[in-house]
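PROTOCOL LOG
Step 1. Enter all chains and additional molecules of the complex.
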Amino acid sequence: MTILLLIGGNITMKAQQLLLDASFVKMEIKGMACPFCAGGMGKSFEAMENVQKVDMAFDHGLAFLTVNKQNVPTKEELERIVKKAGFNVGEILYSEEPFEIPVRSKKKKKKKNKGT
Amino acid sequence: MSAQGPPVRLTAPGTLGFQGSALRTFGSFDNREQGSSYTQVVAVPYNFSTDFQAGLIMRYSFINPNGRNSFNGLNNSTLFLKHQLVVKNDVARTFRLSALIRQSFPTGKEMIAPELYSTFIGISAGDISTKRGFYTNLGYVLRTNDFSDVFQYDLAVGLPLLPQVYPLKQFNTFLELNGSLDLDGNHVLSLSPGIQFIKGIFLIETSLQLPLIQPSGLNEKEFNLILGTRILM
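Step 2. Run joint prediction.
Step 3. Record the structure below.
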């Protein structure tokens, strides 16, 4: 039990350290209509040395990168990768805090009209 | 609904998706009035730039004629070029139009494939959003050795069945119409429903082709089934 707690604590500490060392990038990418096609672009982001994590919100045309704080990719670098994949870049935002990633909203269930 | 994949039987209009190259292979089972055949197809496209792709298609066929011995061998091979001419990108939507050239060579073994060179010149277009995709291929095939030239037309609509996630996990369905009309007036039109599963860089797909219109008495097709995979490299 103690060992499990120690391991768990160690993992949490490492995750916190990674977050402390991280910066966050939010990119608007136009043309991402085919996620399988955009998968290649995700691979390119993941292949960058300074990128820790990639997330995509295809419906919103957004990509989210978690990058090393000491080595943040420049706008020019990111634009070059996106252009090479056949897409257009819109706004690129940097932050020290994680961006909120849009979650697909579930379809609202129709409430039965119970009458009065 | 969100998430899209490339159509199963049509050539996708974009060159995007491959950060270098990909591998596609599928088995095609053809059942006809006078027998059946199975062809294993291997295609390797390579992106030379964002808007220019070239590749090679190789085929190996097993022929089983009714009441006769079966035989197998290399079928004809094809070199293809795709040049993206129009790109209109928007949020979660894109329109692409590409020029296509496919040159087939008589590399096939005698009895397996006809001794002919054929050149397909045409276009591939697609209006694709994360909610659906509309695709078309149109082209003209020039053929040697007294084979009649052919006008080819294909239409497809694709719908995703799973919400999009990253890393990718998609389940898509396609309904395709594949038509050809040769200069002798022979018209062939088929309906091809298909499904596609995508996980990460792997894609698995199948499509059943059923003839709607075909000339009678020319070894009529009963159905064609393809099952294959694509891998982004």
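Step 4. Note key features.
The mean pLDDT of chain B is 92.
Chain B touches chain A at residues 2-6, 12, 14-19, 50-51, 84, 87, 89-94, 128-130, 133, 163-164, 166-168, 170, 198, 200-201, 203, 232 (CB under 8 Å).
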